[in-house]
Hints:
mainly alpha; 3 domains
Amino acid sequence: MYTPLEWFRKRFSDPQILLLTFVILGVLAALYVFGEALKPFVASVVIAYLLEGFIRPMERRRVPRWLAVTIVFTAFLLVAVFLIFSLLPLLTEQLQRVVRDLPDIVRQVQNLIRTLPERYPGFIEPQYADSLISAIGQRLQEWGGHLVSLSISYIPGLATLLVYMVLVPFLILFMLKDKELILGYVRSFLPPHQQLAQSVWRDVDRQIGNFIRGKVWEIIIVGLVTYFTFRLMGFNYSALLGVLTGFSVLVPYVGAAVVTIPVALLGLVQWGPSWELAYLLFAYGVIQGLDGNVLVPLIFYEAVKLHPVAIILAILIFGSIWGFWGIFFAIPLATVVKSILDAVPRLHHVEDPDPDRPGEHPGAAEPE
Length: 368
């Protein structure tokens, strides 16, 4: 039987495994060191993956790639312009309303806390409720100061944002138009023996492409359903919370729980402790339940085979390293690790035989 050290040497002394390991470590190191500067590039890769899902079916119908890229990219620009000039003003107006209603939110929460010692005398002491109320008021003052400083410090960032808005579309266009040229250029730097790298790349390319396209569709569907549901209920913050709920799916399991807080607080400000607030929270719970039990299995069927524990662990690890993009790419990066672990045994065709079992040594006689 092989010792762990012998097994490790046999597996990872293969040049292809070493090549793949160095490539992955190099990419991760570049993202870690130059992560801030590479944000527009990463965003362009994500959007290009999304648009590639519309280009490939057109190519299968014998549409020239240049024409397919032109049609899809033009449609993408039109949708982006429409969202900027229609959705952004609405979100800005509702966000300003939240800022104006912030004192009411705090007052409602403080009034609710004051009633807790009377409702639950054996669990909550009046002194604890008073200290909690004062802490909330102090935190509100701190948030107000941070908000003012953030608004002032964000002014220089507007120029960077405008540059990104021009740079990202050009990057997307060239990534789509010269896809094979770019991939061929990257492959030219790799050694000739690339079977393992190509196997992992095909698997990762398929899974990441499916994940990004599926995740974008999930954001759109959940966001629109939440927006129209809240709007039919007369909720004043339907657009803002529709966007928040849509983007909450980027963080599985955790995002839905976090967005519940602003939904409950803003509903409390508008309706107070009432049946309308209960209906709002019930509708939000139904939307999240349908997303997790119907929409996600439908969109991601056979796309990403990861256990929920592995997903949460990946979110914690990669999110702590790269922040938002680490959270967004947590599942794809986890699939990269899984694809490598699945591809290594395929490279060796079969698992190593156990030397202690008869008939599995080279030259061992078969039992009669």
